[in-house]
């Protein structure tokens, strides 16, 4: 059971962090090179809508598998890295919630109003916040591996 939880936990992390990596370093620069804002921004908003729905799922899986693994061992006995993972994970969830209900909601509004300047600004904000989450995710994984 523990191994199954760890597998699902790891799979959820791969989907989330892999998705951010693809968006930031492959999709975004290619779309900026090939498409003008009126074509690019509606496409990006659609892609993000689908990806972010998946991210809500990965957050649920990370919590539903991470907490039982942690609590099963006990907070007192758990290594420092596990505590750090919990803390960093909670910050990542809060940051994602902020970007989903803030800049991403504004991006959708900008796209439906054909306000491409505002839309580009919001995509930039989403990219910056996602980059922070990518770095935090890497840090959380490093913590659980190195701080045992
Ligand atoms: C806040 C909720 C979280 C809790 C309570 C939690 C808890 C844990 C625990 C207890 C382990 C250790 C399992 C073991 O070594 O046997 C673990 C491993 C892991 N966690 Fe989390 N975690 C959380 C969030 C995250 C996040 C946000 C990510 C990255 C997006 C993540 C990625 C991983 C990975 C990749 C491992 C496996 C490391 C290895 O192979 O040893 N976790 N987590």
Structural notes for this entry:
By secondary structure, the protein is mainly alpha-helical. The chain has one domain. The chain contains four helices and no strands. The chain has helices at 2-34, 37-73, 80-112, 116-146. The two termini are 21 Å apart. It binds protoporphyrin IX containing FE. Protoporphyrin IX containing FE (HEM) binds at residues 6, 9-10, 13, 16-17, 62-63, 66-67, 69-70, 82, 85-86, 89-90, 92, 137, 140-141, 144-145.
Give a brief description.
The protein contains 4 helices and no strands.
Search tags:
single chain; 148 residues
Q: Strands, helices and their partners?
A:
Elements: H1 2-34, H2 37-73, H3 80-112, H4 116-146
Helix pairs in contact: 1-2, 1-4, 2-3, 2-4, 3-4
Bound molecules: protoporphyrin IX containing FE (HEM).
In whole angstroms, the N-to-C terminal distance is 21 Å
Which small molecules are bound?
protoporphyrin IX containing FE
Number of strands: 0
The rough form would be described as elongated
Element string (H = helix, E = strand): HHHH
Largest sheet: none
Helix percentage: over 70%
Report Rg. 17 Å
Task: Please tally the helical runs, counting DSSP H or I stretches of 4 or more residues.
Answer: 4
Mean pLDDT: 97
Give the amount of beta strand, in percent: under 5%
- Domain count, please report it: 1
Q: Show unreliable segments.
A: none
Category by helix and strand content: mainly alpha
